[in-house]
From TrEMBL:
Protein name per its UniProtKB record: GPN-loop GTPase 3
Keyword GTP-binding: yes
Annotated InterPro entries: Gpn (IPR004130), Gpn3 (IPR030228), P-loop_NTPase (IPR027417)
Keywords (A to Z) from UniProt: GTP-binding, Hydrolase, Nucleotide-binding
Quaternary structure note: Binds to RNA polymerase II (RNAPII).
PANTHER family named in the record: GPN-LOOP GTPASE 3 (PTHR21231:SF7), XPA-BINDING PROTEIN 1-RELATED (PTHR21231)
Assigned protein family: Belongs to the GPN-loop GTPase family.
Species the sequence originates in: Sphenostylis stenocarpa
Function: Small GTPase required for proper nuclear import of RNA polymerase II and III (RNAPII and RNAPIII). May act at an RNAP assembly step prior to nuclear import.
Length: 225
């Protein structure tokens, strides 16, 4: 019985971690999308649990692009974020901030965050559309998202956000960051993989999983096993 459960998880995990752009099906899907749509721009949604390294990834990506003379615009979608190591191109806090919501509505941090994201959802046609109008064809936007994983599992806000970007002719993909510490313990490994899988299923986007903080894994041999 245990063996069967592990086999099932193993298949799910293989699905999770092989879903990279090298996957021929996804590559084909991307080509089809690029050819069949008049693409206005490109968007990458950087998602993952709290503290998994999303903002660090966004700032490293930004620095890499500056060094290689490419242009990307990093967007802050976290109404609780305070410090940034990249220039913020668009900021959800201009629309709503978590501190204001918690103070005015007496909500806690998680309820407040869901409220902020639902407010964003209500303002997709005005605030977001106006902000997106500042970007030209072929611009590349990277969205640094909040870390509450319910946003990627069952709350429909991010799904509707993605649909809005697609209606604006953006080609969208998701990058899911998972702390590599999740790989060092079997129960954390299974829960981390299930969280990745649930985001893949919910968002229905070309999806890349990235293990972050590999420098903190001292025994890489254990990781392979
Ligand atoms: N050692 C190590 N630390 C990292 C790495 N990436 C991120 N961190 C650290 O992990 C912590 C969290 O990183 P963030 O980039 O803020 O994570 P986040 O996912 O944006 O966090 P939230 O927005 O709160 O969900 C910070 O202290 C980072 O310095 C890495 O590759 N190696």
């Amino acid at each position: 019985m245990l063996f069967e459960i592990l086999e099932t998880f193993h298949s799910a995990i293989r699905l999770c971690f092989s879903a990279s752009l090298n996957n021929p099906t996804l590559a084909q899907l991307q080509t089809t999308l690029t050819v069949s749509q008049v693409t206005m721009g490109y968007a990458q949604l950087v998602i993952g649990p709290a503290g998994s390294g999303k903002s660090t990834y966004c700032s490293s990506l930004y620095e890499h692009c500056v060094a290689s003379r490419r242009t990307i615009h990093v967007v802050n979608l976290d109404p609780a974020a305070e410090n940034f190591e990249y220039p913020v191109a668009m900021d959800i806090r201009e629309l709503i901030s978590l501190d204001d919501v918690m103070e005015e509505l007496g909500l806690g941090p998680n309820g407040g965050l869901v409220y902020c994201m639902e407010h964003l959802e209500d303002n997709l046609d005005d605030w977001l559309t106006e902000e997106l109008d500042n970007y030209l064809d072929d611009d590349y936007l990277v969205f640094d998202c909040p870390g509450q994983i319910e946003l990627y599992s069952h709350v429909p806000v991010l799904k509707n956000f993605v649909e809005h970007l697609k209606r604006k002719n953006f080609s969208v993909c998701a990058v899911y960051l998972l702390d590599s510490q999740f790989m060092t313990d079997v129960t954390k490994f299974i829960s981390g993989c299930m969280a990745c899988l649930s985001a893949m299923v919910q968002l229905e986007l070309p999806h890349v999983n990235i293990l972050s903080k590999m420098d903190l894994v001292t025994n890489k041999k254990d990781l392979d096993e």
